[in-house]
């Protein structure tokens, strides 16, 4: 058997008629930039998430930039975040000249550990940026409490978690600003690059809308230093079709995760843990094993692709050597990154495939 990790082609075939129609409608109008499909998607995203403002943008990376620029993050400002994430989280902080201040992760959820945040707050701290890793929000209430006490902003990097919830609210509807990514392999993916920012604050929303188009207030009049950060009309049209079926996709991902957990219980594997307050969008089903490299090779031989998210924590990356946080600074993160391994995960993984993967494991 050959297992497909993300089944993107399968999904396209499933919705092909509607997606092709949506693409051709844009081609026929040739309204490639900021066409009506952009606003339509933003309205649907607001309805789905409950967030007052959804603003699409060019990627999950640019979404983080827009969020920080809207909050006026300046060179030298400190932003507290997790070292166990994709590079974009901390890269964008550093790109703006600010300083990523890492905090170790929780041993069970692999998200930032709120109990270790306060000791890292200084006079320069401006925001806390939790990441909803593998689809599960961090403990947002604990984080928000700390942020309120110290008058800090909360930016949620929800690139992996669109549709997840914490205490019944989507993680796009929490924090001061929340972001997401529509990278193709994300739970809600487009056919290229795309992303969105979410906020309930009218002024922040207006500023992010302006920043997305070079900080303009009206055509060729520029209030802020902004960026070319728009999402293509074509990509918006595609996501709009997929969003119609997304609640079903999320339920199917949850089912796949539950089946994996049932099949793998009792083996010498650490399984994913989802907090009772949270639901996960299950971007990944990531387990911990002692003999990962050997296991990956053997599984590949059996037609089972795996992935490692992420083999090297951000504090150990060459580009962050200047932060001077070498090995041993974030021990839980370092241990988890040595053991973590993601199994094939998508809404369409069938019982036969799940049984095959579990048995081979
Ligand atoms: C946690 C996290 N943040 C940010 C991003 C960046 O998103 P994009 O690839 O759309 O720029 C990703 C995507 O991989 C991610 O996983």
Features:
globular; alpha/beta; 361 residues; Aspartate Aminotransferase, domain 1; three-stranded antiparallel beta sheet; Aspartate Aminotransferase, domain 2; 11 helices; binds pyridoxal-5'-phosphate; seven-stranded mixed beta sheet
Structure at a glance:
38% of the residues lie in helices and 14% in strands. It has a seven-stranded mixed beta sheet with strand order 1-9-8-5-4-2-3, with helices on both faces. A three-stranded antiparallel beta sheet has the order 7-6-12, with no helix packed on it. A two-stranded antiparallel ribbon has the order 10-11. The chain contains eleven helices and 14 strands.
Question: What report would you give on this structure?
Answer:
The model has no long low-confidence stretch (mean pLDDT 98). It contains 11 helices and 14 strands. Helix 2 (36-49) runs parallel beside helix 7 (233-244), helix 3 (60-70) packs across helix 6 (202-212) and helix 8 (246-264) packs parallel to helix 11. Helices cover 38% and strands 14% of the residues. The relative contact order is 0.17. Strand 2 (78-81), helix 4 (88-95) and strand 3 (99-102) form a beta-alpha-beta unit. The two termini are 14 Å apart. The strands form 4 sheets. Strands 1-9-8-5-4-2-3 form a 7-stranded mixed sheet, sandwiched between helices. Strands 7-6-12 form a 3-stranded antiparallel sheet, with no helix packed on it. A two-stranded antiparallel ribbon has the order 10-11. It has 2 domains: 8-103 and 110-244, Type I PLP-dependent aspartate aminotransferase-like (Major domain) (Aspartate Aminotransferase, domain 2); 246-360, Aspartate Aminotransferase, domain 1 (Alpha-Beta Complex). The protein is of the alpha/beta class. The chain has helices at 8-29, 36-49, 60-70, 88-95, 140-150, 202-212, 233-244, 246-264, 292-301, 331-339, 351-360, and strands at 53-57, 78-81, 99-102, 125-129, 153-157, 165-166, 169-170, 177-181, 195-199, 216-218, 221-222, 278-279, 285-288, 340-343. The longest helix is centred in the N-terminal third of the chain and has 22 residues, at 8-29. Bound molecules: pyridoxal-5'-phosphate. Residues 59-61, 85-86, 88-89, 131, 157, 159-160, 181, 183, 193, 195 line the site of pyridoxal-5'-phosphate.
């Amino acid at each position: 058997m050959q297992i497909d990790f993300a089944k993107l082609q399968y999904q396209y075939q499933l919705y092909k008629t509607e997606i092709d129609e949506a693409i051709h409608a844009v081609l026929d109008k040739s309204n490639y930039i900021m066409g009506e499909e952009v606003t339509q998607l933003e309205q649907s995203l607001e309805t789905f998430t409950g967030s007052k403002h959804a603003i699409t943008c060019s990627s999950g990376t640019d979404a983080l930039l827009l969020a920080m620029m809207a909050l006026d993050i300046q060179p030298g400002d400190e932003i507290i975040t997790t070292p166990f994430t994709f590079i974009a989280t901390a890269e964008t902080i550093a790109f703006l000249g600010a300083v990523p201040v890492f905090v170790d992760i929780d041993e069970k959820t692999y998200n930032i550990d709120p109990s270790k945040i306060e000791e890292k707050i200084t006079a320069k701290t401006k925001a806390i940026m939790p990441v909803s890793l593998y689809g599960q929000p961090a403990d947002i209430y604990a984080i928000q409490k700390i942020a309120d006490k110290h008058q800090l902003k909360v930016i949620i990097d929800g690139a992996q978690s669109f549709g997840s919830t914490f205490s019944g609210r989507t993680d796009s509807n929490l924090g001061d600003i929340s972001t997401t990514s529509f990278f193709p392999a994300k739970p809600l993916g487009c056919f290229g690059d795309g992303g969105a920012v979410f906020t309930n604050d009218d002024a922040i929303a207006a500023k992010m809308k302006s920043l997305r188009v070079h900080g303009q207030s009206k055509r060729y009049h520029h209030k802020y230093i902004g960026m070319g950060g728009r999402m293509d009309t074509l990509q918006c049209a595609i996501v709009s079709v997929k969003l119609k079926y997304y609640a079903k996709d999320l339920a199917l991902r949850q089912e796949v995760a539950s089946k994996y957990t049932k099949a793998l219980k009792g083996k010498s594997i650490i399984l994913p843990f989802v907090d009772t307050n949270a639901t996960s969008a299950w971007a990944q089903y990531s387990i911990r094993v002692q003999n990962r490299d050997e296991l990956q090779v053997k599984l590949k031989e059996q037609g089972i692709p795996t992935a490692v998210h992420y083999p090297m924590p951000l504090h150990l990356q060459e580009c962050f050597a200047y932060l001077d946080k070498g090995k041993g600074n974030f021990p839980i993160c370092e241990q988890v990154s040595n053991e973590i391994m993601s199994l094939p995960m998508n809404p369409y993984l069938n019982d036969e495939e799940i049984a095959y993967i579990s048995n081979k494991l």
